[in-house]
Amino acid sequence: MKRHRALMIGLSVAWGLMLGAPTLAAQPAPANAIAAAPDARAALATLDALAAGRWAAATHGFDAAMRQGLSPEKLRQLWQLLQQQNGAYQSHGAAVAAPAPAPTPYHSVLVPLRFSRATLGLLFSYDARGALAGLHIVPVAPSAAALRPAGALAARLARQAACLRAQPVAVDSTGAVLHGTLTLPRSGAGPFAAVLLLPGSGPVDENGNAPGALGNSIYQQLAYDLTCQGYAVLRYNKLGLAPSTGNGNDVTLATYVRNTRDLVTWLARQSATDPHEIILMGHSEGGLIALAAAPGLKIAGVVSLEGPGEPMARIIESQAITEAELRGASRAQIVRERVQIDATLAAIRHGHGVSLSLGGALAHNPFARLFAPAAGLLRSEIDVDPTQLVRAIHVPMLITQGGKDVQVLPGNGQRLARAAPQATLARFPDMTHDLIHCAGRAIACVMPQPGDVLDAHLVARVVRWLDALRATPQHAA
Known about the structure:
By secondary structure, the protein is of the alpha/beta class. The chain folds into two domains: about 10-140, Roll (Nuclear Transport Factor 2, Chain: A); about 150-310 and about 385-475, 3-Layer(aba) Sandwich (Rossmann fold), CATH 3.40.50.1820. The chain contains 17 helices and 13 strands. The strands form two sheets. An eight-stranded mixed sheet has the order 6-7-9-8-10-11-12-13, with helices on both faces. The longest helix has 20 residues, at about 330-350. It starts with 11 loop residues before the first helix and ends with a helix. The model is unreliable at about 1-35 and about 140-145 (pLDDT under 50).
């Protein structure tokens, strides 16, 4: 089984913080420690300079593109942002050789970074001449315990477990097996209305966690909240994310649509769930998948949680420009980044295969390097207009839009709602892309903390909408 390399588009501000050569697999399995190798020594010297605040020294050894994209001042801002999101920097682990997506002219070194609230990987990519051509924050494979909820959140989930029963699920789809969990209410006669929860982009597991990035189990929280209110919920690990099988790299929007339809078919055949009361609920990229899969399915409704309301190409550009503005980029730099984004999207559109070949000018384009591993999936998504898809959906919809969402920017929900025949738009001024209440500035809440609980206003609104949907004559009958 190949590792899942799909890019976390919805986390670009924090996930692709730095620039350069391609990021490696989402769950890397590094080789032996290589602390004595020249590249490892150079990587550790750069890291030591960052930790000591010697920003100019940290740029020694950069290639031309890196020097242009990451000034000492930008390095300082990015290092501070990392600590704002993950806690104070504490130490680093051993440098290891890291595989990079093929074909690539780069060789890479991965160094685990230990912050007070998270462990991330800093990936150094060197060209054939030994110049530093890429610097990326990537996930590192954590222990199983690292992805378990802790503290007050763990206690809350444990209390909720008393009102539900969970059973493992395995569904055949697209030549692979999707593994997940179905939660059913302990009380009530059943069969129950059922929610199929479609995850967002990247290596996000059935609980909503991603190594080195997300750890507050947002999908498990949502499943437990809804099940304790009387709804069955199916959540799952997408293709290539263990224990699900398949190739997580070689996927397209059509692949995910087929998975969704197979999961709906499975739900409809279960004695504990009502085949006439199945609701698709998609978060982020999962919202786009729900829109594409819904026509032709026998479902009762669709919920889009922070899903896109415009083509992914525009989402990517708006995220990148927002990131540039947040890090204080000049107008000239923003113009240059727009050009680089346009070139990257054009190469993806006209390319072939799972990944993007980084020849010619693309070798010096940081966005091309960043998106190269997910080119096949992006090619199938970037020009799909959600407002066109939603016009073919003739069941009730709930669309949520958080005012503190810096990944799918406010306005997307309104665009989608205007085009939908039967849509309800619910706005949450202080909610983030990851469905967390944020009382402060949006940039301070880009990444949820391990103990963060879902926005209570969102949960209450979703439950009211689901209850009203079940009470309508066509469903009550």
